[in-house]
Amino acid sequence: MRRSLDEALKLQTVGQILARKHLVAHYQPIVQLKDGAVMGHESLIRGPADSPLRTPDALFQAARGEDLTVELEQACLREGLRSWANHAPGKRLFLNLSASAIVELVNRVSVPGVMKALDAAEVSPAALVIEITEHEHITDLPRLIDAASALRAQGLRFALDDFGDGRSSLRLWAELRPEIVKIDKYFIHGLQDEAVKVQTLKGLTRFAETFGTVLVAEGIETEAELQIVRDLGIELGQGYFLGRPEPVPAMAVLQRAGDVIASSMIAVLPEMTRAANANFTVERLAVRAPVLGPDVSIDDVARAFADDSTLRAMAIVDGERPVGLLNRQAFVDRYARPYFKELYGRKPCMLFANTTPLILDKHTGLDAMTAVLTSSDQRYLTEGFIVTEGGRYLGLGTGEQLVRVVTEVRIEAARHANPLTHLPGNIPISEHIDRLLASGGEFVACYGDLNDFKPYNDHYGYWRGDEMIRLVARTLVSHCDPRRDFVGHVGGDDFVVLFQSDDWLDRCERIVSTFNQLALSLFDEDALANGGIEAEDRHGVRRFFKCTSLSIGAVPVRPGVFTRPEQVASAAAAAKHKAKLSSIGLAIEGC
Length: 591
Hints:
Elements: H1 2-10, H2 14-20, E1 24-32, E2 38-46, H3 56-66, H4 69-84, E3 92-97, H5 99-109, H6 111-120, E4 128-132, H7 141-152, E5 157-163, H8 170-176, E6 180-183, H9 195-211, E7 214-217, H10 223-231, E8 236-237, H11 255-262, E9 291-292, H12 298-307, E10 313-318, E11 321-327, H13 328-335, H14 340-344, E12 359-361, H15 366-373, H16 380-383, E13 385-389, E14 392-397, H17 399-416, H18 426-439, E15 443-451, H19 453-460, H20 462-478, E16 486-491, E17 494-499, H21 504-518, H22 525-530, E18 532-536, E19 542-546, E20 549-557, H23 565-581, E21 586-588
Parallel strand pairs: 2-3, 3-4, 4-5, 5-6, 6-7, 7-8, 9-10, 12-13, 20-21
Antiparallel strand pairs: 1-2, 1-8, 10-11, 13-14, 15-17, 15-20, 16-17, 18-19
Helix pairs in contact: 5-6, 5-7, 10-11, 15-17, 19-20, 20-21
């Protein structure tokens, strides 16, 4: 005991550890996500077990303080090669080196010297992948590219490590053209809950395709992360869920990870709730127009409007600050009155201006513009509004522009996410069906619709109708497995659920039963006592309607039956029509 403690105390510096050759290589598997095969391993160095310099981070931090970084890297390289040859024939070995160490290796040892060392270690150059681990900014990229090109000519491959952690760059990727890029674990952690990360990975896959690069997703630690990474088409993965670093390289992926990879079930990707035009600002509505000074006369304003028939309004600006707004139609109507010119023609225009016009900064976004549309002050619809930049006049906008733009953007947004329920809209629904069909697995497409919703909406008003729609959304979501089942809102009272859960039928029955019970709380006492309401039907005939209920049509989709999302949607819609005629509100097509 005393001897091991004394030995540990001697190993407090990197220099001591290197002198005694007490580094130990561990190997973590890198896995093909299409089939779960282990294609290679990354060599990860550990210090002595009883030393404070056990971990790689502690080792390299101490090495920088002792000015032994290059020596430590070279020792890691030797240990990784020494232990490798006996364990994993036919696999690839990933070794970590900084850019400066790569340049130093080629300059000091020479390329033939590197090849001789590999031959002595019985490691083929074609089996070796050098991971560039750059903790500092690369100061001499041309020298690194030259050194990498010389080694690549001998069969070695290169990888960028931790891409996206702030130290690596697209320029390095574009100029070095590594065969492999390892995506930093930040983008993988919690992937199932962060749509921005999903979109980032999609962008990186497109960039990788451009340069013919293979991607590795690092830091995969959960089933959900593995499933999404696999579904995004990333070729390789690494992380504790696939396999931990061990002194003896693992030749197979861990069982749970293998089951996920082999499964035909696809991940439900988190959706971006903002539309593509959500960054639209009011600046794009601003039109340059002549301005008036506060002392300009009424007669001069009349001449300005007469000279330019396109002017719908003019702002009154004091210096650079807008202080009022004159609408053309209101001004002309007043100016045409008997004796108006004689009484007010020489007076300043501020006398009849709107001194509290709607003023919007150019950075005003879509949400604020929507709030304007629903505000109690609607004068902007006829008068227009003023656009400013830091309080200074920039231009004018019209009410018609504002209404049109907000409406168009909201319609576009609804295609991606319904603004009432925030559930995915038509485009994400089609994309998910496409992914399900491509997976080759079985799933169930369900179409949900409310019975007698229009009479309810007409009777109680749109506000209570919106509550009913939101209740459908909450009920569907609460009875679905977010990891397996996709819930979308087509629009109005139409919903789509794409089940991968095996107990989908039981879930559908509980959805119908739960909703029908909860929906009763949205009716008044008279309706509950009568079992429904009196309202006009689609033909304007007043008649009795039962309390609103939910119907679901389901279509089990088996491989090869459908090829396009619209075919699945049409079949589910047909099943929905049958469900509306059913006494239980549920119909299954094709069983």
